[in-house]
Amino acid sequence: MQRFSPKRVFIEPDAMKYPLGQSLHQHFVQEDISVSILPDHNRVTQIPGKTDKEKYIQAKQSLVVSIRRSLKFQSCKPSAHYQLPLVTSCPGLCEYCYLQTTLGPKPALRIYVNIADILAQAERHINEKSPDITIFEGAATSDPIPVEYLTGSLKATIEFFGHRELGRFRFVTKYADIDSLLDADHRNHTEIRFSLNTNHVITRYEKGTSSIQKRLNAAKKVATAGYPIGFLLAPIITYEKWQTEYTQLIKDLAQILPREVTPSFELITHRFTARAKTNILKVFPQSTLPLDESERKFKYGQFGYGKYIYPNETMDEIKTLFFSQLGAHFPNSKIAYLV
Length: 339
Known about the structure:
The protein is α/β, with parallel strands linked by helices. It contains ten helices and 17 strands. The strands form four sheets. An eight-stranded mixed sheet has the order 4-5-9-10-11-13-14-17. A five-stranded mixed sheet has the order 2-1-3-8-6, covered by helices on one side. Strand 15 and strand 16 form a beta hairpin. Helix 8 runs parallel beside helix 10. The longest helix has 18 residues, at 312-329. The protein is globular.
């Protein structure tokens, strides 16, 4: 797939005080991309669209060059201690994405140019937890890879953590444009994870992302570059040939990775809330996602709201398949969790 290139760009006036803001402005002008200076930090009102779907898609083609004003990092359990906010939103059109319930109907991409301030705050958190190691998650509200060629922020962050004995960084992506990270001085302090799924799921529900083969090829490059590596098999969706195709996916992964690599695995089954279903069907009214509540089990989550998950019998089938196949092909790897 082609690199993300926004249709329109909005720049906060204060962002122009930073070298990255200035270079981005120059880049977009040279590329003949529409650039507007925002009158206010949070008011991006010029995104077109009449229907919910049009507004959503146009927002995904819009980019805000911003300053991260709040340096209060949110917690990020269970995967890390804190979120590290480098980017918000992403250009992917994943129908099931949970960010549809948190970023509003116009989830424009937002990149932050004050990377030094963000990393200084990370340094403070590292010092507060010393002598314990502090872990930061870089993809809690975004996929940072599509805009990395514009910002270089991810590589800078990887090298920042490479020089912090008590700091660790991790992020996950559905994209394959990772070549600029391969020579970073990571010192094994950054774990790069790839979100994987079957071709059936990717082509139907993850439009605008890299193909499974490109993700696997990128994972091989990352592993060869010596990074700790992990995989999210998510969301696991059952359909007619799900067992056969997920089994093949695990075999393909085992064949492409160097034999000495021992990745971590996180297994996340498809689930949805009533609010998420409403938002999904507004944006994707023809979606074939399995959203029938009668086929699910209702469960209250840790944040007080309920979600629809697979029933116990289906969860047992999923656990049996993935634990057996991952155990056979990656006997020395760790399955962090199955939810």
